[in-house]
Amino acid sequence: MARRPRLAGGCLADRGPAERGPTERGPGGHNSNRVGRLEQVVNKLDLTGIGMTSQRTRMRLVDRLREQGIADEDLLDIVSSTPRHIFVDEALSHRAYEDTALPIGFNQTISQPYVSAHMCAALMQGGPLVKVLEIGTGSGYQTSLLAQLAEQVFTLERIRGLQQKARERLNLLGLRNIQFRHSDGGTGWPQQAPYDGIIVSASPRKVPMELVDQLATHGRMIIPIGDEEEQELQLITLTPEGTKVRVLERVRFVPMLGGKVQ
Known about the structure:
The chain has 262 residues and is of the alpha/beta class. The protein has one domain: Rossmann fold. It has six helices and nine strands. The strands form two sheets. Strands 5-4-3-6-7-8-9 form a seven-stranded mixed β-sheet. A two-stranded antiparallel sheet has the order 1-2. Helix 4 (141-147) links the parallel strand 3 (131-135) and strand 4 (152-157). Helix 1 runs antiparallel to helix 2 (73-81). 41% of the residues are buried.
């Protein structure tokens, strides 16, 4: 079984198979070892950072997420070690660890950290994540969290400029268990289905059944549903008897649009 890469305190790592220890599973079934560490610190980015990008600043964000109900310590550990400031423009890097959405260009935003963490936590409650489909790569930040939680991540982005930037950032972080596709995402990626989890970062007006059909039995999809004025974040679980829907909270996402942007 493939091992999930993890970032370690601002260092990047990738060990060969002979160097990997036994897999440890946390309560949610995900890997609690920091597997896949780089043997050398990649010096192309200052991942430790100073001032507003420091580890202390990241821990303040983690404390806020914990106060808001994010309880999975392995997920919080991933958030604390993932450098969110490299996923936003340099001019906004001092705001990267605020619990707020930020613009990333192309009329898109990087989601509020709480929303990203909440969506990941909801996926994790269903058990081990082998294959996850992400609709909307965006900046790549949420992709980086998923790549440390799941064995394989398949991510779709309709805006090529965003996808290219995200791919560069994720490659630089050494996260190699991600496959990219330039697509609007409305029909998913059926060639790689079924998925244990699907996470959607844009809001259609109704649930796309094409995505539900790509869930594995007991798979879970986290998706905002609604128009530009009113949306709710839904957790949809595919069971042998059909689908179960639970509304998690009110949210505000960009609308899901069709077509690709070069």
